[in-house]
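User: Batch of two.

Assistant: Item 1 of 2:
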Amino acid sequence: MDDDRYGKFAAVVASLVLLPIVLELLSWYIEQEDYSVSRAITVISVISALAVLALALGRFRTRLPVFLVAAIAVAAVGEGVMGFIAAFGPVWWQASLQSELLGLVTAGVSAFTVVAGVYLLLLYRKGLYLPHFVSAQVAKPTGTTRKVIGESEVLIRVAPGADVSLAKVTDACVAMLDKNDLHFVGYFAGERCLFHTDVLDDANLVHHFQDTTQEQRRDMYLRAGKRLQWLNTRLDQQLVELESGFLIRTVLDVERGALYFYWIDTGRYLLGVTLNQHKVDVADDKMAKLVDTIRGIFALPPINQREKPSKPRAHLRLLSRGERWSDSGS
């Protein structure tokens, strides 16, 4: 089931704008008056314009927060102009003071709305997150193949029209999967997932799926990858003044496992998942090695090289009989 909040946005708007036509027809029927053709043309024109707008918003619903805030600001500017005319028009036309006060209140409210709209737009550009508006709908890979590697069955799902040169990248990701630690890897480029592979169907992992199925979890991971990409892009904007380069690794260490976001190159990143909380570090190391492997495929230098600390060597000596421990306790 498509749970995209704005997948049926056009239909909702169309149903709302059709309501005036129904009311107009009902009024015409009850009052038995001649229906004005010019009024009908006006209503149909307005509804057609709103329908076109609804379709446009349906296609670009990922930018809907900006559209909504911009619409508020534009409407507020129009209200401000009308409020200004209503406020100072009575002075010019020697009208009553009551309408002047009403116009001043309208102008004040609209001015506040304009400032609020501009402020929200600036915050959005700086990385304000609007979770109820941001859509994480992504195109899902559909070409499915399965391989048996060792004791696990690996699912590989590739997007239509994916570049055949990704075969080495796919093989590298498949090689890293293991039913004990790294369970899911997705490769994203641009605005879509080119392929993902996992061992979620393994019998040893069944207990991790109580309220969701393996297929539902795959869809959730793809949406999570899109959201993490959105979030990391805005964090990069916040950190640009530090001159520290791109954010190359984000780990969400949750109660039951972890999600890994790894930056590969501009517009390319990996999403990894482990369901085993005891193997978070192991899966993290695998993701780091995998990214460097993929960068090598694209003739890029490694960026996740890690130096593991050597094991500390104990300096022990035997105590002679009668010798006491040092008071320092060391």
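Item 2 of 2:
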Amino acid sequence: MKVLPFLSLPPRLPRLPGPRLSTALLGATVLELVVLTGHLAAYPFGLTQERIPQQRAPEQRPGPPLLPASPAADRPVVLLHGFIDNRSVFLLLRRALTRQGRRHLASLNYSPLTRDLRTAAELLGRHVEEICARTGQREVDIVGHSLGGLIARYYVQRLGGDRRVRTLVTLGTPHGGTAVAPGAGLHPIVRQMRGGSPLIEELRLPAPGCRTRFVSFWSELDQVMVPVGTACVDHPDLDAVNVRVTGIGHLALPVHPAVAAAVREALESQEAQEALETREGAGPSTGTSSVA
């Protein structure tokens, strides 16, 4: 499996020396409750699809031409939420990316009534094509939380989305399937996130020549990912790095400032990434780094 060297991440937040797991878990649980409370307050504001700014199309043209690969600031970022959620979960991350200078941001909603992840992946593909046509860009970056990351991976790996997606960042996504999936016996799309499901096995199939770069953030305190390592990308054909996040749980991944800073860095320019890959002395890597 080809993996990238360690990402150059922001400094870690101060931590007490040698914290016991029980103490860390308690702190993460409290933070999860705080995040959940805040998200419930913001949830109604994300129920509708994002309004697309109207742009005057050039006269006598079917659409703007696609530009060559562009700097990071011009490349659109697509944000895709998790199960029974909506675009409001990315309020803070969107703000952080805007401050970074990203000019094209799109937060997409998909229906919780969707019964097949493949259908959601096809819808994502249509949205990506619309975004590229509207902005004139050839590629996008995608950030997906939980199920959103799995939908984006299916689009990239199985539907040819790698020609459009330069970098896919996933936050707490069950790449290997999770043993803990709320409502797994009730909702078909959640059953697809179980380990050993036909869809998870489909993602294990060969993907030679996949052009998308994967950056997967996982936390040892993520109670939704069982085992926690399931949130790591482990595929011999994929160009991937797995970033370990400490001290926070599943719901906090899209809103934690240290994670947001690391996501911004993961969406760096292609030139900077190439320099990172060829850094002098960079030997074999486990594909794992840390943040928070």
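The mean pLDDT is 80.
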